[in-house]
Amino acid sequence: MAGRILPPGHSRIIIIEGIAGSGKDTFQKNLAEHSAKDGLIVYSFSEEELLFSWKHYWINNMESHRIRFLHSLLDYCEELIENPKVVVILNRFHITYAIFSKFEKKAKKLYDRLVWRLSNLPVQIFVGKLSEENIGKRALHPERNDIVWRMHQDKRLQVSGFGTLTELYKEEQKTIFTIAEKQGIPYSIFYL
Q1: Which of 101, 118, 120, 152 is least crowded, fewest Cβ atoms below 10 Å from its Cβ?
Q2: Global pTM?
Q3: Which residues contact 167 (CB under 8 A, 6 or more apart)?
Q4: Domains, the chain
Q5: Is the pLDDT of residue 119 over 80?
Q6: What secondary structure letter does DSSP report for 136?
Q7: CA–CA separation, 108 vs 52, rounded Å?
Q8: Residue 142 CB contacts under 8 Å (≥ 6 apart), including other chains
Q9: Is the pLDDT assigned to residue 1 strictly greater than 70?
Q10: CA gap 88, 77 in Å, rounded
């Protein structure tokens, strides 16, 4: 575990981050089920619902839409957690945004404001971590065998400057932890 962890029951907005294949979807599903069994009302948002699917990766001018959407979603989360029985689970959110965005001045200010807002809410971040060995096995999502996924991987590799996708994902994982530590929002690590 790393970072600081909120006491049980104090995390009302839970953010799940991590590289591809780190277990985000599985962790989200298990957390939602466990929370519901504890009598909580769970609002659980997938990557796709947060516009962070790999299918959104290459859409031009997406950054400005995402940051405005993230602020609107956070407004909604603040309303939801007025009910003490509600917990909100977000599969990818602000850390992923920081990795995949090319910040223009205005977007950077909006992003910094988003981080400030998160730091003043009952937020807990969970970051999935893969061992170096598992990055090569899991992050490439070998179970996805369609041509569009392979084209996406090839294009990411082409524009990244890395020799292999495993090297790219290792660097992304390291960056996620650097950002989480720097922002100071409570976070902990989970392993697949």
Answers
A1: 120
A2: 0.90
A3: none
A4: 13-191 (3.40.50.300)
A5: yes
A6: I
A7: 18
A8: none
A9: no
A10: 7
Cβ atoms of residues 53 and 121 within 8 Å: no
Closest CA to 179 of 67, 122, 95, 94: 95
Q: Among the listed ranges 47-56, 97-106, 154-163, which one has the minimum average pLDDT value?
A: 97-106
Contacts of 128 (CB under 8 A, 6+ apart): 16, 17, 18, 19, 22, 23, 24, 27, 189, 190, 191, 192
Amino acid at 93: F
End-to-end CA, the chain: 14
Per-residue confidence (pLDDT) for residue 64, from 0 to 100: 77
Instruction: Give the residue ranges of DSSP H helices in the chain.
Output: 24-37, 62-80, 94-100, 105-119, 132-134, 147-160, 165-183
Q: Residue 70 in contact with residue 114, Cβ under 8 Å?
A: yes
Q: With 70 as the cut, is the pLDDT of residue 182 above it?
A: yes
pLDDT of residue 9: 57
> What Å distances lie between residue 111 and 13, 68, 79, 138, 150, CA to CA?
18, 9, 20, 30, 31
How many whole angstroms from its chain centre is CA 117?
16
Find out whether 16 and 28 touch, Cβ atoms under 8 Å.
yes
Structural contact between residues 43 and 118, judged by C-beta atoms closer than 8 angstroms: no
Q: Answer whether 62's CB lies under 8 Å from 24's CB.
A: no
